[in-house]
């Protein structure tokens, strides 16, 4: 019974397991990219030290996690997603900016961990922070070039390592949007966040809403597959790890449910889940050479299958107060 990384409870329950082949198919279509698919399957077996990975859940804090609790590294992401894309706007961006407007940010420093192409930083530059006071971190080389072209001070190291900006109290604000769910060694992460924060500093974190994740998995939509996402954070899990590190969970909110956005995402995600099944028609279409015709074919099939989603949509509408996409928290350094 693996120990919960968030609260330390030694008794956790296994929900299900995934195989290396199943996980690989979630990221790479073997018909479309057979060589990359084989390499990824082999890499996952080596990463886990076996051919399967369990998904477990803590009964105390509700934290869900991959077991082995090991994050994907550069090799994984180069195989699984060599050409990442980043949305220009997210709910958590707007919610964070709303909170920043209530704070005095003049002359303060901020760093965005996992900044992508800098879309969030573009929103706060010259509005909340001076450009010279903004720093950015991202592993991806293309993202680093994009950030540097915008004038941001950019780093590519690991937040948890001692050689990463080794100045105690370097930042007033730290942003981590859709990053923390990818990370292992979570106690090292929080220790480092506290180290890097100035007195009375704050961290803003957004992760996938774990209730939405379980909805998807229970209703034939996408599995939140490791080792991409390895942690399923809850308010209670955040509170536990904050208290352990002398930080305070000040605000925790879920993204509001928007029906049209939900329907668009659910139609796509449920099609992609079907396309992961070996030998299925959806897998065949998904594996055709990339072209405009292939994209149209996928869209037509996804729409044609959408009436089968009506029971799942009925459930979602009945539970809409908890099924927004993101969970957002503000964490404060109190000493």
Explain this structure to me?
- Keywords: Methyltransferase, Transferase.
- This is Methyltransferase domain-containing protein.
- The protein has 3 domains: 13-80, no CATH class; 91-257 and 326-333, 3-Layer(aba) Sandwich (Rossmann fold); 259-318, no CATH class.
- The strands form 2 sheets. It has a 7-stranded mixed β-sheet with strand order 6-5-4-7-8-11-10, sandwiched between helices. A 4-stranded antiparallel β-sheet has the order 1-2-3-9.
- It is globular, with a radius of gyration of 20 Å.
- 39% of the residues lie in helices and 19% in strands.
- The two termini are 35 Å apart.
- With 335 residues, it is of the alpha/beta class.
Q: What is the rounded Rg? A: 20 Å
User: In the CATH hierarchy, what is the architecture of the largest domain at level 2?
Assistant: 3-Layer(aba) Sandwich
Widest sheet, order of strands: 6-5-4-7-8-11-10
* Overall SS class: alpha/beta
The helix tally amounts to: 13
Mean pLDDT score:
93
Approximate shape: globular
Number of strands: 11
Strand percentage lies at: 15-25%
């Amino acid at each position: 019974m693996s120990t919960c990384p968030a609260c330390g409870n030694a008794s956790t329950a296994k929900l299900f397991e995934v195989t290396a082949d199943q996980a690989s198919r979630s990221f790479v279509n073997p018909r479309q990219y057979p060589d990359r698919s084989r390499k990824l399957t082999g890499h996952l077996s080596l990463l886990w030290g076996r051919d399967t990975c369990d998904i477990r859940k803590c009964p105390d804090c509700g934290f869900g996690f991959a077991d082995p609790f090991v994050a994907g590294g550069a090799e994984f992401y180069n195989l699984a997603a060599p050409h990442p894309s980043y949305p220009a706007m997210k709910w958590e961006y707007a919610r964070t900016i709303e909170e920043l407007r209530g704070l005095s940010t003049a002359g303060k420093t901020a760093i965005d961990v996992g900044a992508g192409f800098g879309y969030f930083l573009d929103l706060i530059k010259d509005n909340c922070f001076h450009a010279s006071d903004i720093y950015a971190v991202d592993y991806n080389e293309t993202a680093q070039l994009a950030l540097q072209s915008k004038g941001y001070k950019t780093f590519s190291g690991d937040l948890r390592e001692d050689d990463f900006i080794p100045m105690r109290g370097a930042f007033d604000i730290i942003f981590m949007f859709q990053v923390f769910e990818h990370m292992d060694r979570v106690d090292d992460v929080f220790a480092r966040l506290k180290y890097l924060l100035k007195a009375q500093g704050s961290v803003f974190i957004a992760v996938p809403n774990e209730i939405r994740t379980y909805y998807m998995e229970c209703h034939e939509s996408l599995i939140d597959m490791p080792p991409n996402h390895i942690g399923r954070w809850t308010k209670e899990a955040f509170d536990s790890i904050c208290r352990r590190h002398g930080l305070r969970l000040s605000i925790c909110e879920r993204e509001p449910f928007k029906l049209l956005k939900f329907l668009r995402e659910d139609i796509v995600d449920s099609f992609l889940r079907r396309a992961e099944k070996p030998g299925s028609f959806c897998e065949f279409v998904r594996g055709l050479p990339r072209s405009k015709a292939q994209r149209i074919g996928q869209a037509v099939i996804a729409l044609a299958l959408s009436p089968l989603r009506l029971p799942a949509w009925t459930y979602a509408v009945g539970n809409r107060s908890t099924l927004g996409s993101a969970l957002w928290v503000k964490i404060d350094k109190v000493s």
